[in-house]
Amino acid sequence: MRALVTGGTGFLGAALLHRLAAEGARLRVIVRPGSDATILDRIDAAYPQAALQRVACGLDAGADGLDAALDGIDVVFHLASAMSGGTEAVMRGTLATSAALLDALARRPAPPRVVLVGSLAVLDTASLAEGASVDDDTPLEPRPALRDAYTDAKLQQERMFRDRCARHRIPLVVARPGVLYGPGRITPSTRAGFGPLAGWFLLLGGDNPLPLAHVDNCAAALAWIARHADFAGEACNIVDQPQPGCREYLLRYRAGQRPGLRILPVPAPLGRLAARLLPWLHARSRGRVPLLLSPYRWRSSWRPFRYGSTALARLGFVAPVSADAALASALDAPSE
Ligand SMILES: NC(=O)c1ccc[n+]([C@@H]2O[C@H](COP(=O)([O-])OP(=O)(O)OC[C@H]3O[C@@H](n4cnc5c(N)ncnc54)[C@H](OP(=O)(O)O)[C@@H]3O)[C@@H](O)[C@H]2O)c1
Questions:
Q1: Fewest beta carbons less than 10 Å away: which of 20, 246, 283, 293?
Q2: 243 CA distance to ligand 1 centroid (A)?
Q3: What is the dihedral angle through the alpha carbons of 241, 245, 249, 252, rounded to the nearest 10 degrees?
Q4: Which InterPro entries does the UniProt record give (predicted)?
Q5: Residue 164's Cα: distance from chain center in Å?
Q6: 55/30 Cα distance (integer angstroms)
Q7: How far is CA 160 from the centre of its chain?
């Protein structure tokens, strides 16, 4: 298999390149000019048989350079995305990059298969009852503007891929990882709450399951999906099983990484009240109080759900690292 990876210098991209190279794939990576490509040097040295090729291309500058990058490619893993930097940066870094890739794919008479790395955040959890299961067929978020820029961008990205891949007969599968973590990235997600800030963590998620995906398990799942999925537009959530509760994650994080971190648990009724008050305070302060909570965001992100993937189980995927060993390796030894 010859794979093209966008976002290969990122957290998940690096793990994916390792995985693909270890499984014998030959690799080509889109690297934007100015990117820190040390990780690619390491992969090159560890896996010379992967014959890693680099294509210099800032994807948001358009599709130029992508035609040659797609030559001879069997599967494209599209990971490049802006994860932070404000609404405009997130939108542009996610949507312009995707549009450029899709333009280049649509021009090919026989386009390669595409694995789009989307996000679990695009699912409509606000409409679900507490304790409901969130699976691959959970409907998409109908009101992204009430969530956050990242959700909005990833939702538009998934819709754009579904629409254009169907129109141009580009074989597609959408993989939706949960919260990625692993060496170097273990700070508790906002699904657990806010912090650490000045030695405190505001725990909003209580004992809700935290939909984690260890980065190595996620990389293995993506490689597995590329080999086993039908590429008929199906979606696969990627989350480790079983998932720890938010409190459990936080306590382990404190024990291994941040001794002395003070945890302030916010009971759900108090959280719901704060979520009602914050939009009012945000408006009154003319935006100086950040809109971290709202009733809709609370319903979406801080209620208990059971996350899984029937599709991934049907494809026969088994995570290489058990959830417990993954948590132990990431959290129990000091690393940050
Ligand atoms: N992190 C999570 O918890 C999570 C959860 C679910 C889904 N995901 C998805 O997984 C994917 C990877 O996430 P990550 O955490 O690995 O992100 P990351 O570490 O921030 O890496 C993002 C990658 O995208 C590249 N990129 C950004 N803009 C680009 C552009 N204009 N042209 C070319 N490359 C560009 C970056 O290149 P540089 O090295 O030059 O910056 C980097 O390689 C994203 O699609 C994200 O939405 C992440």
A1: 283
A2: 24
A3: -100
A4: Epimerase_deHydtase, NAD(P)-bd_dom_sf, NAD(P)-dependent_oxidoreduct
A5: 21
A6: 5
A7: 17
Using CA atoms, how far apart are residues 171 and 113, in angstroms rounded to an integer? 5
Expressed in angstroms and rounded, the spacing between residue 217 Cα and the centre of ligand 1 is 17
Residue 64 has pLDDT above 80, yes or no: no
Indicate the average pLDDT of the chain: 95
The single-letter code of the amino acid at 73 is: I
- Cα separation of 166 and 209, whole Å? 35
CATH 3.40.50.720 applies to domain 2-183+210-243+305-329: yes
Q: Which of 19, 30, 32, 243 to mutate for ligand 1's pocket (most ligand atoms within 8 Å of CB)?
A: 32
**From the CB of 59, is ligand 1 less than 6 Å away?**
yes
Q: Among 202, 216, 290, which Cα is nearest to 22's?
A: 216
Ligand 1 pocket check for 214: Cβ under 6 Å: no
- Centre of ligand 1 to C-alpha 142, Å, is 24
Q: How many residues are given for the chain?
A: 336
Which residues does 42 contact at the CB level (< 8 Å), separation at least 6? none
Q: Looking at this protein, which amino acid is placed at residue 129?
A: A
Q: Is 182 touching ligand 1 by the criterion CB < 6 Å?
A: no
Phi, psi of 231 (to 5 degrees): 60, 40
Residue 227: is its pLDDT beyond 60? yes
Percent with pLDDT over 70 in the chain: 99
Which of 11, 116, 189 to probe ligand 1 with, by most ligand atoms within 8 A of CB? 11
Which two tokens mark 279? 């939009």
Q: How far is the CA of 4 from the centre of ligand 1 (A)?
A: 15
Task: Examine the pLDDT at 336 and tell me if it is beyond 70.
Answer: no
CA-wise closest residue to 160 among 205, 188, 109, 122: 122
Distance CA 327, CA 203 (A): 19
